[in-house]
Design goal:
Distance between the termini: 23 Å
Strand order of the largest sheet: 4-5-6-9-10
Largest sheet: 5 strands, parallel
Strand content: 5-15%
CATH architecture of one domain: Orthogonal Bundle
Number of strands: 10
CATH topology of one domain: uronate isomerase, domain 2, chain A
CATH class of one domain: Mainly Alpha
CATH superfamily of one domain: uronate isomerase, domain 2, chain A
């Protein structure tokens, strides 16, 4: 078997046909990532693979630390090549790790390099990739175009001026939408803190809730499709102030058609040493306890009773919450979705487990699919990784006789989960059609569905 070849992860004939016919050419709707809108607006160019790959990527930092790499080669002041060589030195040890797969998919898709990254190949790959990165077609916008991105949603503080999003919106050389996402975490965590007071001052009010709603209006005027909340614990009902503010935000999202994302269950900044040395978002977070289902159900139920439940996506970091969130999303369907395998679950086993829950609750065909949750401009191979696993799961079901080889039905599921459901769920088409770049998101590169009850040959 060839290493990560054309049929990587596609271990049945049906999986291969589904992927190459329906999934492979789908565009990308990336509704949650941490890309810098400034880098997009400025068409940022990169100097080498360290800038492109290792700068700010705490997934890689975490793996390097796990394998004994000194911090100076991760976030220190060593040379770019020394950092890259340290990453290459770790690669052969990452058997079964999604970082190994993502790294080689990125080498293949963006650089045409099929050679495994090892200490022996590091200098060759570095030199070849460096020359390509410094040439044409490797600025931030070109990389996103190459990935067939149609929409991406960055992660932004309510106090943001959105100046970069505004510049992107009038740049006719950028053929995709870059939408801000509303992330009010620090205001919920510290409603009396300096940031909350500054936001109130900015919007001329003493009421934090009013300030957040005014900020949300500003975001919505500038194309915001989605909000994002992250909770280590979900103290709904425990804290009256927190509950009232979160409920008010939920209503505000519903009124403005903004999707609400709830990311549940991480323990942040576990290592005091690492946090003191580097700060947050450095690879020092881990899986927390399961989310209290009664509190989550109370929150969603309170909003539903007031006819104010926004479209919502639930994500869990503790895999023990899979069944709970999948069934709770089904309780509030079609308004609420069980989201993609998130962060430390974003691997072969984690994605398969999430898809299994969706299938067993009857919700797979309505799923909004995958997102990158990444700071890297080449991370969009994660959509390919997910799509291959989706087709792998469906292929096995068909070839085990659990579902007919109905190309039309299966193709519809694959196409919808890979792209179309996200476009519908986030109701983005009116935004996309405001500017004509020669192709609408609905047209994209979506292949025609097979006609009739045609079996996969």
């Amino acid at each position: 078997m060839r290493f990560m070849d054309r049929d990587f992860l596609l271990d049945t004939h049906t999986a291969q046909k589904l992927y190459h016919t329906y999934a492979e050419a789908q565009p990308i709707f990336d509704y949650h990532n941490h890309l810098s809108p400034k880098n997009i607006a400025e068409h940022r160019r990169f100097h080498d693979l360290t800038e492109l790959w290792l700068e700010g990527d705490h997934y890689k930092w975490r793996a390097m630390r796990a394998n004994g790499v000194e911090e100076k080669y991760i976030t220190g002041d060593t040379t770019p090549y020394e950092k890259f060589a340290a990453w290459a030195g770790v690669m052969p040890k990452l058997v079964g790790c999604p970082l190994y797969h993502w790294t080689h998919l990125e080498l293949q898709r963006y650089f045409g390099i099929d050679e495994p990254l090892t200490p022996d190949s590091a200098k060759r790959i570095w030199d070849q990739a460096r020359d390509m990165v410094r040439g044409e077609g490797f600025d931030a916008v070109s990389l996103l175009k190459k990935a067939e991105v149609r929409v991406l949603c960055t992660t932004d503080d309510p106090a943001d001026t959105l100046e970069w999003h505004k510049k992107i919106a009038v740049d006719d050389s950028i053929p995709f939408r870059v939408c801000p996402s509303f992330r009010p975490d620090r205001y919920l965590a510290e409603p009396e803190g300096a940031a909350a007071k500054a936001l109130c001052e900015k919007y001329g009010t003493d009421d934090l809730n009013a300030a957040l709603e005014k900020a949300l209006d500003y975001f919505a005027e500038n194309g915001c499709l989605v909000s994002d909340h992250g909770f280590s614990a979900f103290p709904y009902r425990e804290s009256a102030g927190f509950s009232a503010l979160l409920r008010s935000l939920g209503k505000a999202y519903a009124q403005r058609g903004v999707v609400m994302q709830l990311h549940l269950g991480p323990i942040r900044n576990v290592s005091p040493r690492l946090f003191g040395l580097i700060g947050a978002d450095a690879g020092g977070d881990s899986v927390g306890l399961t989310t209290n289902p009664y509190d989550l159900a109370a929150f969603l139920g309170d909003l539903e009773r007031e006819n104010a439940l926004p479209r919502t996506i639930l994500y869990n970091l503790n895999p023990a919450d899979n069944r709970m969130l999948a069934t709770m999303a089904a309780d509030f369907a079609p308004t609420v979705q069980f989201g993609a395998a998130w962060w430390l679950n974003d691997h072969l086993r984690g994605i398969e487990a999430q898809l299994q829950e969706l299938m067993e609750t009857g919700a797979l065909g309505a799923s909004v699919g995958m997102l990158t949750d990444s700071r890297s401009f080449t991370s969009f191979v994660r959509h390919e990784y997910f799509r291959r696993i989706l087709c792998r799961v469906l292929g096995r079901i068909v070839e085990n006789g659990l579902y007919p080889a109905d190309a039309e039905a299966l193709g519809m599921i694959v196409s919808n989960v890979c792209y179309c459901n996200a476009e519908r769920f986030f109701q983005s088409k009116p935004l996309l059609d405001q500017r004509d770049h020669g192709v609408t998101a609905a047209e994209g590169k979506q292949p025609d569905f097979c006609k009739g009850q045609k079996e996969i040959e």
